[in-house]
Amino acid sequence: MNRYIIGIDEVGRGPLAGPVTVCAAAIPRGMKLTPLENGVRLDDSKKLTAKSREAWVKKLKKAGVAFAVTSISPAVIDRVNISRAANLAVKRSLKKLTEEKGIPIEHSVVFLDGGLFVEGGRTMIKADQKINAVRAASVLAKVHRDRYMKRLSIKYPAYGFERHVGYGTRAHLAAIKKHGLSPVHRKTFCKFV
After folding, report:
1. What are the residues whose beta carbons fall under 8 Å from the beta carbon of 86, sequence distance 6 or more?
2. What is the pTM of this model?
3. CA distance 141 to 22
4. Chain centre distance of CA 120
5. What does the pLDDT look like over 100-121, one tens digit per residue?
6. Where are the domains of the chain?
7. CA dihedral 65, 126, 82, 174 (to 10 degrees)
8. Does domain 4-145 have CATH number 3.30.530.20?
9. How far is CA 116 from the centre of its chain?
């Protein structure tokens, strides 16, 4: 009998700077995740506002949803490529969830959003639109990474990470052109410099 549904999702596959971040979230079978007080339902992080994502993180933590987050640095992404880096983060997050948070993998079913793989898991296209545990992982990973990028913006203020969190916006490209690459840029993603 599966007691937990584990959802795994990543954020930060496409940015020019910062890590790729993966979350594994375990939701007990039968747990209902009712909408926020303002009626906003749990959804893929890309479909929620920053304010709604933050509110969902609070709600998930309060509900006792166990989760583990792993980030893989730009240096490793450059060395092994983005797909391998994301799947390395998957393995590490799942290991943290089972070993440190005590979620029994043998009593769980694991769903991963498309492009992510782990032995014994089920990869589904658009799982973050179908399975609450994957939606939760998506939101938890996004909030974790965005907070980290905002902290990086203090160390590297010239790039505006607090606004675009490392994605290739016009302002970010202009900053790279003016200041060159920082140590947190992915060199393999910035070959245009």
Report:
1. 10, 13, 20, 22, 72, 115, 116
2. 0.96
3. 6
4. 21
5. 999 999 999 999 999 999 999 9
6. 4-145
7. -100
8. no
9. 12
